[in-house]
């Protein structure tokens, strides 16, 4: 399956999840590595835009395409997520939920719903997985963020 991520150009080959490890995210605690990807290029762009300050929008971006073995990603029923998973900002309960899987070397990744686009999904890659070699970076294309999207 192909998944996508928008990132600063200097991180276009990153499979270490350094940014998410340093800052944390909706589904991971600070200190827990994670590579956030989305099921489509457009969702990846929306997810990025929602999490970056408009005034600090970098111009040096790449849209990265990955090939992942979808069958090796854990999926859940919505009832299995913490009750407050949609809250803004991301609650501690979702950070705990995701981190419990991202700290497991046997888990390649997890599939989680987008809070931005209902019925679309993000695929969180576990950089510490013993199966990480199954992830392939297919291509990284220069991307110029159209500032009309967030203005």
UniProtKB/TrEMBL annotation:
It comes from Pedobacter endophyticus. It comes from the Bacteria. Residues 14-139 form the RES domain. This is RES family NAD+ phosphorylase. Pfam families: RES (PF08808). The lineage of its organism: Bacteria, Pseudomonadati, Bacteroidota, Sphingobacteriia, Sphingobacteriales. InterPro entries: RES_dom (IPR014914).
């Amino acid at each position: 399956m192909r998944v996508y991520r928008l990132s600063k150009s200097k991180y276009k080959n990153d499979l270490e999840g350094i940014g998410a490890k340093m800052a944390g995210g909706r589904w991971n605690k600070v200190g827990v590595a994670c590579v956030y990807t989305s099921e489509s290029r457009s969702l990846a762009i929306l997810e990025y835009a929602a999490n970056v300050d408009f005034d600090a929008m970098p111009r040096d971006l790449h849209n990265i395409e990955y090939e992942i073995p979808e069958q090796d990603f854990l999926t859940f029923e919505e009832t299995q997520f913490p009750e407050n998973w949609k809250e803004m900002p991301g609650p501690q309960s979702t950070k705990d939920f995701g981190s419990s899987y991202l700290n497991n070397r046997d888990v390649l990744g997890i599939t989680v719903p987008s809070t931005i686009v209902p019925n679309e999904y993000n695929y969180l890659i576990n950089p510490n997985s013993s199966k990480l070699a199954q992830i392939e970076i297919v291509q990284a294309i220069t991307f110029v963020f159209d500032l009309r999207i967030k203005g």
